[in-house]
Amino acid sequence: MSISMIGIDHSMAPVDIRALFAFTKKNAGEAMEKIKEQPGIYGCIILSTCNRLEVWASVDEEAEISLYEELCRLKNVHNDEYRKYFTKREGHDAVEHLFYLSSGLKSQILGEDQILTQVKDALGIAREHFTTDGALEVLFRMAVTAGKKIKTEVPFSHGNPSVIHQAIQMLEKQGYSVAGKVCMVIGNGEMGKVAAQALEEAGADVTVTVRQYRSGVVNIPFGCKRINYGERMEYLPKCDLVVSATASPNFTLREELFEDLELEKNIILIDLAVPRDIEPEVGRFEGVTLFDMDSFRMDETPAELQENLEAAGKIVREQMDEFFKWLDGKELIPRIQEIKENAVNDFNLRIMKPLKNSPLEEEDKEKLMSAVDKAMEKVVNKMLFGLRDSMNEKAFLECVAGLEKTYEK
Questions:
Q1: Catalytic: 72?
Q2: Residue 140 burial (CB < 10 Å; 0-12/13-18/19+)?
Q3: From the CB of residue 303, how many other CB atoms can be counted at a distance below 10 Å?
Q4: Please, what sign has the CA dihedral across residues 297, 25, 269, 279?
């Protein structure tokens, strides 16, 4: 068994290419089920965010499997032109990537912690659809643990960054402050709530669009107002800035809606969705400035982040070592189990003769043998795993091989 993944992200592909391969939570589950059905695939997890799409699988090392081709089949993509945007990782490289990713060290905005929730959610969806296996389960759990440890022990100097925080900072550098500005956020999901809260905390007058649900009142971030989604175009001319951040497959702001629209002032539109929420042609209208996800790239690491990044990297490496120790142990378990069974049988044969000659009743003899078996198993376990923890990998494997030869017939 080996761990393999393919991925496409903001560093390799523009937003429109990423959108071709994006999944919602619902269809990600269905896709994982279909991928796991393929021969040679033991487990599958799909991670789909605004900035990246990754397909993870534990696979039979002998099987010839192309995760890219599986993905294209699911997305009805029938040519090879998009392969160049994907990165393939296997084994150690794949594991290392996930640990660094979950820790926010590979994000468009270094140190952001939304990815931690997204990795955890991806594992949760895979569990719901029964597509994860032991290796992927432990890998994703330990990667999340590393991310949580970093979040607790290495607070990044610029707080809780996200794309909207980066957008606000970029606008401020250009002399545009959102404080006191009239803002509308289209969408009240995870991305929308983060955007609304960030704008409200920056001093903006924020209104959030909500849809009417039969389930009753929909919660919005504290300090924000609400309007119905259908009223967005009536409210938009009053706004200085509009953020659209939904999971909708359709445009929330289309070109035709702006054809006869009279804006009261210049307006900034920020599209935080993948696929896009705002039709690109909207940016051609006078008085409209349109930004998308790729507008807010961090070109270099700020100096104040470097020390924190080094501390985070140390935690990642420690947690990775723990995972590989578990993985190595997992692969050795059948061999260790066989050594243990042989050792217990050997001991039983040696004790059987004196036990037969003892004055104990048969029932007491059986109880004693059962207790001895359990004690022997614990002793052998302690010895073998003690050796594993105190020796380097090569020396330990030589010890295991030597013990196996002891009981060869």
A1: no
A2: buried
A3: 8
A4: positive
Which of 44, 50, 72, 183 is catalytic? The answer is 50
Pairing type for strands 205-210 and 225-228 reads parallel
d(C-alpha 299, C-alpha 58), whole Å = 34
pTM above 0.90, yes or no: no
Q: Find the DSSP H helices in 53-133.
A: 67-75, 91-102, 114-128
SS3 state of residue 371: helix
More confident residue, 275 or 34: 34
Q: Give the dihedral sign, CA 371/373/376/377.
A: negative
- Decide if 244 contacts 50 (C-beta within 8 A): no
Residue 80 pLDDT: 86
Phi first, then psi, for residue 289 (nearest 5°) are -115, 120
d(CA 320, CA 336): 23
Q: How far is CA 160 from CA 92, 194, 197, 236, in A?
A: 29, 10, 12, 28
Residues 305/110, Cβ–Cβ less than 8 Å: yes
